[in-house]
């Protein structure tokens, strides 16, 4: 089990990292997400021992790792750019971490074959790095990280630069691999779809701090802050007043159980349905096909909302909406 306690990192007077309290259980996949520059790589570097925190501790299986050098932590870190050696073949790249660990050559060869098999590259050992596709290079880097059987696997934007279709496939494959091997993983990404697809729990970072942590379901249904809501794609956010158990959104008023006051409300796609006879009318702005259904973005009063549709709708079309106020999400502001 990994425990992070009161970690801070400062560059000059810039506080790059401030993590009060974060645990990763054995066999758990934690995705750490957040915009570029929020401190994700710094977090991994501190866990790996590549960066000394100004204060706080990285605790592994109840032992604080303060002062323990990187190579003695038994963690695997896969860098964003893969950092493969272009002049070495696939097998030698994968063997790199094992040679450092001083393991005998037969054992190295067996572990390399095993790691390549796990990532779907059995038989690729003699290939040169330069002739591999981006997806194959990603798998080699993953095999190299897994070969020494690390206690903790850390991946820094492991599929960041690959195209969307390949990303989706690799995300699913990695999820299966993590589960099959029962790995403990910290998976860094700036992509919320990838984080939700791969992780048991997600942590959203902002300016060095963890703003929200929970299962994908918990974070999606209750992002708590506007920053987290927008980051995970809930960008229909509006201000509304509740008076006497009724919330007034301008384009409609609904029974809503909250004390009187002004609230910041996220309107998720699940709060809306299509009904041509409804008196609540909206105007379609865009319709994007997402395999099986359309994500409709529509202007509803002053709000730009999303609703799912099984049929395409042209921009400018007038649509009727049903509204389920129990799906509205109250943000902390
Ligand atoms: P992320 O991986 O989320 O994009 P980083 O952890 O790389 O973010 O960086 C966090 C912040 O710390 C950024 O503002 C970055 O510019 C700064 N930073 C990172 N490494 C250094 C360094 N070695 N020296 C000074 N500033 C740094
Ligand atoms: Mg980074």
Walk me through this protein's architecture:
By secondary structure, this protein is an alpha+beta fold. Helices cover 25% and strands 34% of the residues. Strand 9 and strand 10 form a beta hairpin. The chain is globular, with a radius of gyration of 24 Å. The protein binds adenosine-5'-diphosphate and magnesium ion. Magnesium ion is lined by residues 40-41, 156.
Largest sheet: 6 strands, mixed
User: Outline, from the CA principal axes?
Assistant: globular
Backbone structural class: alpha+beta
Number of H/I helices: 8
Report the bound ligands by name, code or SMILES.
adenosine-5'-diphosphate, magnesium ion
Instruction: Say how many strands there are.
Output: 20
- Contiguous uncertain segments of 5+ residues: none
Helix content: 25-40%
Mean pLDDT: 95
Strand content: 25-35%
- Helix and strand string, N-terminal first? EEEHEEEHHHEHEHEEHHEEEEEEEEEE
What are the main properties of this structure?
8 helices; 25% helix; binds magnesium ion; globular; 333 residues; 5-stranded antiparallel β-sheet; 6-stranded mixed β-sheet; alpha+beta
């Amino acid at each position: 089990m990994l425990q992070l306690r009161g970690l801070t990192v400062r560059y000059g007077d810039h506080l790059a990292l401030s993590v009060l309290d974060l645990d990763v259980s054995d066999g758990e996949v934690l995705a750490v997400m957040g915009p570029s520059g929020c401190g994700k790589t710094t977090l991994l570097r501190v866990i790996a021992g590549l960066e000394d925190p100004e204060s706080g501790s990285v605790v592994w299986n109840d032992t604080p790792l303060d002062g323990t050098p990187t190579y003695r932590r038994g963690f695997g870190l896969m860098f964003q750019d893969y950092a493969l050696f272009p002049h070495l073949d696939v097998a030698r790249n994968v063997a790199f971490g094992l040679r450092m660990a001083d393991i005998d050559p037969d054992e190295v060869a067996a572990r390399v074959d095993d790691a390549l098999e796990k990532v779907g590259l059995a038989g690729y050992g003699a290939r040169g790095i330069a002739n591999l596709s981006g997806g194959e290079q990603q798998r080699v880097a993953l095999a190299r990280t897994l070969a020494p059987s690390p206690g903790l696997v850390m991946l820094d934007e492991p599929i960041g630069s690959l195209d969307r279709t390949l990303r989706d496939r690799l995300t699913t494959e990695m999820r299966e691999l993590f589960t099959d091997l029962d790995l403990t993983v910290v998976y860094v990404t700036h992509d919320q779809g990838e984080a939700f697809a791969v992780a048991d729990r997600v942590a959203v970072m902002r300016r060095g701090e963890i703003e929200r942590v929970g299962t994908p379901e918990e974070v999606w249904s209750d992002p708590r802050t506007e920053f987290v809501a927008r980051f995970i794609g809930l960008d229909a956010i509006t201000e509304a007043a509740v008076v006497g158990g009724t919330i007034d959104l301008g384009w409609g008023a609904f029974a809503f159980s909250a004390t009187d006051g002004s609230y910041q409300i996220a309107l998720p796609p699940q709060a809306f349905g299509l009904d041509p006879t409804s008196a609540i009318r909206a105007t379609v702005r865009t319709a994007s096909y997402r395999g099986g259904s359309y994500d409709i973005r529509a202007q509803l009063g002053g709000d730009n909302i999303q609703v799912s549709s099984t049929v395409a709708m042209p921009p400018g079309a007038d649509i009727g909406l049903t509204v389920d106020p129990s799906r509205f999400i109250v943000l902390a502001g």
